[in-house]
Amino acid sequence: MIVTSIAVLIRIFSNSMSNVYQKQLTAKGVSPFFINFVMYFGLCICCIPFVLNLNPDIFTFKLLLNALLGGLCGALGNTFLVKALERGELSVLGPINAYKSVVAMIAGIFLLKELPSTIGILAIALVIVGSYFIFDTQQEGFSLKLLKRKDIQYRIYALIFTAIEAVFIKNVIVQSDIMTSFFFWCLFGMIFTFLFVTVRGEFKICINKFILSRLLLVTILMGFMQYSTNFVFERMNVSYALALFQLSAILSVLFGWKYFKETQVRKKLFGSIIMVIGAVILILWK
User: Residue ranges per domain, the chain?
Assistant: First the structure.
């Protein structure tokens, strides 16, 4: 249990810190697609010693299909997240991840005919109330006008794709192991982001020491983030893990204030804590 708790903390910190460096890179004009391609490529290189010892018998059609779909969703989710960070504030975009649990509940209502309980409705209310305090710090306030902003739209897309990705990752882990899942996440993520970068013609960038150092840090942190995620998924129900991961919202607010001088941090922290409580209740009660 102690090791799993440490893995959760590593995942929370590495995820939030990687967002800081991703945002710094986009501020220098580096494409979100290119950032993710370099990250996946670097991690694939690190996986070479492991790949040489892989048992080919585990490559079933079901496993490869889950890995392929997980890689596609991961590539899209990570790219939309970086594109959101390019345009918006980290202290606003981070807490939006709490809406992932609300999206899951809404999907359950329409697809599985699962009606929310009283506790579920209360939890949704907490997420909405918490987001009011965060969005009230923006020019549009807590209104539908927010949905017209590209950074908010991209963050919602990222939320949806990463939620779907988690299901496929869990399936690959069940059918193989943590390291195999990690390798396929890197491999298919690299393939899809390479296609995105090629189609958009975004390979030409001005490389300097700052950009190289941040690309390296993003790669290292994302490697820790994904491996620790897989480690937790293997030992814990996905819904419980996702509930714990919501704590990264609080770090996002603090990092947004520390690294990008984002304002009204107390109000955003208060809203984030309320959203996290609501998301945790919603996920765990289910």
Answer: 2-285
